[in-house]
Amino acid sequence: MPIIIVIQGAEINIKPWHILLGGLKEGTTRIPWLNREPYAYWKGNPAVAETRQDLMKCNVYENQDWNARLFAQHWFRESQEGFNKSDLPNIRCTLKVLLGQSVKNTFCHVTLPLYVYDYMFHLLNSYAKLFRYKPSISANATELCVESMVCGAEGSVKKFMVESLVKVPANTDPCTMPAPFDPPTLYATLQRKESSIQQVESWEKSYWDNQTITS
Questions:
Q1: Which of 16, 27, 107, 182 has the fewest beta carbons under 10 Å from its own?
Q2: Boundary of a domain, candidates 98, 131, 147
Q3: Is pTM, for the whole model, over 0.70?
């Protein structure tokens, strides 16, 4: 099933992908993974789902600390401050585990697609193959161009749209989608994932063992 991923969110100051990627890469070099804060981090709106409200119960309290730092996003206050406390490169590359991003994050795992236009190319072409008729342009259709889409935008929305504008066509063909995994390849992939998780857990155990010895 195709997954649609939002590449930018002007309303919360998430910049266009190619700009955000540079910030994330730079952010991974600031603090080595082993030196990052040993907390699980999450920030969002807990009011939208019961599971999120349950998650907030795992926050740090006076007599309880499960090494989780969970924050409710105060939208009005954040918007007044320009969402500076939600800056992805500065926040998400300083902690070891990011809830809702990936189970274990090593040097800030990026889940946004680099080849998003290739992805959309394959998605739309696959969707078109399902048609049982030949599409035609309606006589009442209105053609959209870059100018008509940008002119009505304001503030960060307009700024990010201009920054993400593709000015020239790519000099490469669209990427080729890989074939489905055969059983041995799938098994090897799952084994590598499990090995990576075990490695991170080993680092965590070593860290806390050293903390106990020191104290």
A1: 182
A2: 98
A3: no
